[in-house]
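hey m, so remember when u said the tokens were messed up on ur end? i reran from scratch. heres the input so u can diff it against urs
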Amino acid sequence: MTNNANPQQRQPIRAAVAREAGKPLQFETATLEAPRDNEVLVRMVATGVCHTDMVIRDQQFKTPLPMILGHEGAGIVEQVGRNVTTVAPGDHVVMTYMYCGLCAPCATGHPAHCANMGPLNFGGGRLDGSSSACTHDGGELHDHFFGQSSFATHAIASELNVVKVDKDVQLELLGPLGCGIQTGAGAVLNAMKVRAGSSFAAFGTGAVGLAAIMAARVAGATKIIAVDVNPARLELALELGATHAVNSRETDPVAEVRKLTRGGADFTLECSGRAAVLRQAIDSVGLLGTCGIVGATPEGTEASFNVNDVMIPGRRIMGIVQGDVVSRTFIPELIELYRQGRFPFDRLVKFYPFEEVNQSMADSESGITIKPILRIDSIAA
């Protein structure tokens, strides 16, 4: 059905809301307005929990509060606006980052680097400043986090940032493909274009780093190095495609990567969001090699490097957002690789009830869980 509802009619929802910096999310009853002409209403089935959710919760990156967080949603379309043509009620969708579709990066195939990336994904509403959500008594509540705010029983998204997926794949597993998993895999396969026979090192083996390692194996890299301080994650990295594991608490990772690659890796990827680790990733790159940056850092974070050591060997430092992918085509490609057993991202996840959102965040931060996924009860409070 199209959106013929009275715009004053609102969908009741239950949502996990960030109200104060550094404090646990709190569950609240709220409402959503009906989808506008280019929007869709999605009943959430599950949503991944990402490091960026914690960055915003702690206000390391400033956004307006109170806000409904969550940006790795998977669900079923319930209602569409009158101009929506690519999805229909009943479709299974993965929700991903938002972009304008009109600026130069969007027009040239780089929507993840949209000129309006900041306000559309972190501004707490649509580009015009409006939001879909409000508290049950009409109070202010920001949403549209990454164009979705999926820590809720329902979410309003744009036609641009929902990706239709086949119904024969477990929907509750797919949400992380919309951010963390596509970030790591896309950085390797799309942005840096890691090639067959090359060497690759991931600095950090969380969900993004492990996705990158699996993608490097798909790409045909023959030397794949995992760098981390967590022995269990390094062991998993070896099972998922890494050829070598380096514990940076026990050895100098730069020296070890250079030794393993006989001078420096063709590609490195900084996934930890730490300036000191970025320096290691840059220093580990070989002649004419590339260091990609995907780790989210607090606002204002600066890092140093030796200018001559970058210039003379022809090293490249590349900022990468969301793998620089077009999600509508890339997410189905990852699903097909998963079907073939070549991209087993399901080994990274642990499911939690929606009510345990704060515990899932704590487990992610402590390293207990690589990629939490919240199963969402769609019955609104």
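this time it looks ok to me. The longest strand covers residues 39-48. if urs says something different then somethings off w ur setup not the seq
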